[in-house]
TrEMBL record:
Record's subcellular location: Cytoplasm
Full protein name: Elongation factor Ts
Major localization class: cytoplasm
GO molecular function, one term: translation elongation factor activity
Record gene name: tsf
Amino acid sequence: MANYTAADIKALRERTGAGMMDVKKALDEANGDMDKAIEAIRIKGLKGAAKREGRSAAEGLVTAKVVGGTTGYLVEVNAETDFVAKSDKFVALAEKVLEVAVAAEVDSLEALLAADVEGKKLEDYVTEEAAVLGEKVVVRRIAKVTGGYVDAYLHKTSKDLPAQVGVLVAVDADSDAAKTAAHDVAVHAAAIVPTYLTRDEVPAETVENERRIAEETAKAEGKPEQAMPKIIEGRTNAFFKEHVLVDQPFAKDPKQTVAKVLEAAGTNAVGFARFRVGN
């Protein structure tokens, strides 16, 4: 007769996130010893890691932290299903990844995965935790943004899931007005999806391609040759207004650009990052 109770099963499920049958089997094999049962669950999960390697990890969450008001970190961690993505254990794992990123002050995925956590690389630590969760878990990306003030905004696309969208916006001032504007712009960026901060960040080849498309489209529409320069310029500017954060019409007041909103607050945007899970 197994020497463990229903309370032991419940406790082990809460500690590992493993299913009922896996927990009971592990307790049977460990003769009720909780630590040995946890070890058995981990070993079983690690053996299955290779089988999970090719699976898609398109669910997950985004989490963020601002340090000292001037440095922001944004991390995306993925799982295979939303069931795991909203579990306490997965959320705790993502927060651990963020904690490591902040402590190591990293700004690249490579550096984050190589960072130390409990005497091992973060990449190995995540693999072990994924073994317990029973799904492929991927630390997908990280962003680090600095400025006079950094605002972090996390948005839930579903009330039942963790934040799926995360934004960092850095400005060059830390007045109350600048802080309010930075937050408003972060909320704007969550909804409007900018790709670049300024026009200077748009690759030259991208601009050239947009101009070429604008010209070919205008010709196909039968526009007069003398009007081409103005048409090309106008359509290229439309591209900037769609994709460049400071050129976008501000979500709360489309008559103003984001740049004008920041200018009115006595500040300028100096950096931003935006993640949406799976995109």
